[in-house]
């Protein structure tokens, strides 16, 4: 919960009637507002690096009036734990995949439909445009604040300890970790795999103990989480794009003065743009690093996987779940899906 320093109580009603300069330092050097920001990314991940830059700028720009402490790498628990804390107000800010948030607001996973986006041009047009506005609107009505810029979580690839995924047949019965999200589970069930919903903070141990054979993530997550230590193959399926929504507890955020809200939003959004640029061309460098760690890459044909989803009724089922109106907004950016 946002902590107000005793300074505000000591001002009294007469002083409170006078406008205070927006960036005054709290009396005695203590921050006037102290808050927490959490993520599930390692320290070396662009998400963590850019979030730290944002909170540092916020502290500096407010002359110490606003202090946001960053807790990366699941220090406050797994994604579902942190989301619960965010909703209760125990945590003020977090970054989270919209697909995981869909357990709370189902529409937030719509951008993750398998093989929907051909590339980043369409992704950012959608998320900065009408599709992102639709998602943010629904989440906002559910009590969370969503900052304007979606951060990048990349196009996702499948890794494995047992065999490369060359064709959809290689996924039959395949034990794969997926995040806690109905869409992820549904898609891999359509492939005939055996998906297991596991939070990211437990992925390494699940792979290490052979609870699952593989997992799927963008290359940068495979590298920064050191999954190359427990995986051998990477199949460049690019089966979906995922993003991080920068979220705040709606009640807490609305209680902040307007100048503080604006400054926090401006800095989170600016760092979101920087993080996008970090990730935009990272796959080449990450592939080189992973190959140096002994991982073996292959390039499957995406059309074969898309056809399996069509025949399994995956697209028709999710179009019905999201509704024709929301699906039409998605297809404005992707073109026809599942046809």
Description:
45% of the residues lie in helices and 17% in strands. It has helices spanning 7-16, 46-61, 79-88, 98-101, 120-127, 130-141, 182-190, 203-208, 219-224, 250-255, 258-280, 282-292, 302-311, 314-322, 324-334, and strands spanning 3-4, 33-38, 66-71, 93-97, 144-146, 151-155, 157-160, 175-178, 194-197, 214-217, 233-235, 241-249, 296-298. Helix 2 (46-61) links the parallel strand 2 and strand 3 (66-71). Strands 1, 2, 3, 4, 5, 6 and 12 form a 7-stranded mixed β-sheet that branches. Strands 9-8-10-7-11-13 form a 6-stranded mixed β-sheet, with helices on both faces. The chain is globular. It has 339 residues and is of the alpha/beta class.
